[in-house]
Structures are given as C-alpha cells and as structure tokens.
Amino acid sequence: MYCARHCIRTALRISASAHRQELQTTTLCAVRTLKTSPARPSDAIASPPLDGAPKQYSPKIQQLVNDISSLTLLEVSDLNELLKKTLNIQDVGMMPMGALAAAPAAQAVEEEAAPVKKEKTHFTVKLTEMSTAEKVKLIKEVKNCMQGLNLVQAKKLVESLPQEIRANVSKEEAEKLKAALEAAGGTVVLE
C-alpha cells in the first residue's frame, strides 16, 4: 500500500511540474489528499468493514479491553471516577425524557407495593354435589361436557361425587361449564 501511494505521489508531482498550467483541480485535490494521508499504514484509519465481515480493532484497543476486563469491581469504580474527573464529565441521574416517564413509573411502583392477587387464567371444574330430583338431566349434561363419555360412564361419574369434570380450562370455558352443570342440578366448584 505504501509503495502504491509513493508511486502515485511521485507521478503526480512529475506531472504537476511538467504541466503546471494544464493542471486540473482534481489533480490538485488528489495531491492534497495524498500529502495529508499518513505515511505509514499503521497510522491509517481503518476502513469500515464490509457487510457481514467482522470489524477489526487495533491492537491498542484490544489491549485496553483486555486490561479493563481484568479489573475488579472496585478498580472499575475508581477508573470510572478518574475518567469522569479527567474528562470533566458530570454525573447525570436521568435524561430529560426520563423525567416525563417518572410519574407513570412512580405510579407503577405504588401499584406494585399494594398486594396484588394474581388472577388465575386456567381452572379445574369439579362437580361436588347433585340434586337427586334432576339426576338424569345432570348425567346428560356431564356426557355433553366430557368428550368420549357414554351414558353409563357419565352415570357412574355422577354417582361417585366429587369428581373432576375438566382440568386446565380457560376462565370463560370454566364459567360456561359451571353455568350448564348448575342449570342441570349440580353444584360446581372452580379451582
């Protein structure tokens, strides 16, 4: 890279001295760019990486990262304090936009402080008792509520109460089952 730059510089200088009057603006700009570019490749600023290519960091940066990562928390705290003093950086608690969000955040903290009951989302429907007068109606309703159950199995289930009708159902479905079974003469508990 150094040789190519040196050759271009030399060629442009020779061209400039031979044809000073015909020198175009673009050639002058090229000469200025080459004069201001670093002489050594190590002084050059790294070009941005191509898409997907990992970024290459200078050895100086890599050494700093290694040194900082080997520090203890107390040393990091001291480093932070010294950098703030050296670079004249002031401690800022929150950004200005944070002040606008502080009111809702304070309200959320107050809500969290109050004991919050976690609302259940899934329930178990349990049939605990039945009305003997409406036994047949309840057996038919249990058969409709439980898939794959025939009348004989539904009768045995109703006669051996308390029994679990359905487990792990949503609140809406549990409420529907409870209403249907209670309408048929049963006593239902949601757990």
Strand percent estimate: 5-15%
- Give the overall average pLDDT: 75
Element order: H for helix, E for strand: HHHHHEHHEHE
What would you call the shape?
elongated
Uncertain spans, ≥5 residues at pLDDT below 50?
none
Helix content: 55-70%
Radius of gyration based on Cα positions? 40 Å
Give the strand order of the largest sheet, numbering strands 1, 2, ... along the chain: 2-1-3
Structural class of the secondary structure composition? Answer: mainly alpha
Count of distinct strands:
3
Number of helices: 8
Q: End-to-end distance, in Å?
A: 77 Å
Report the biggest beta sheet as strand number plus sense, adding barrel if it closes. Answer: 3 strands, antiparallel
Commentary on this structure:
There is one protein chain. α1 (2-18) runs antiparallel to α2 and α6 packs across α7. This protein has helices at residues 2-18, 25-36, 59-69, 73-87, 96-113, 135-145, 151-159, 171-183; strands at residues 122-130, 163-170, 186-190. Helices cover 55% and strands 12% of the residues. The chain has a 3-stranded antiparallel β-sheet. By secondary structure, the chain is mainly alpha-helical. It contains 8 helices and 3 strands; from the N terminus they run αααααβααβαβ. The two termini are 77 Å apart. The mean pLDDT is 75. The longest helix has 18 residues, at 96-113.
